[in-house]
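As agreed, record minuted below.
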Amino acid sequence: MLLTGFSTLIWLLYMAMLVLAVVALVMAAMAREDAYRAADKQQKSFWLIILGVAVAVNLFVPMLFLQIAGLVASIVFLVDVRPALRAVSGGGRRGGSSSDGPYGPYNGGR
């Protein structure tokens, strides 16, 4: 019974790593090529290859260390590259100005 619960937990972890890699791959594919250059990040093709390999490893190669490497690549893309791409592309702002804070416009204490 304990072994069944452990194998279910491992399967859920594998599925979570696969979903994270697929989400990162789709987000990398949707970004513009010039945004990568403007954000001073690696090229779009580099990230598509790395994240595509991460998805393939999660699907076809049951080697935990390769899956963890794909997980690290996915996390790096989602935490570092994607916010930089959104900042360069103007994503996330809906008509606000550059002086807007998280709760509205910043007026400098006036």
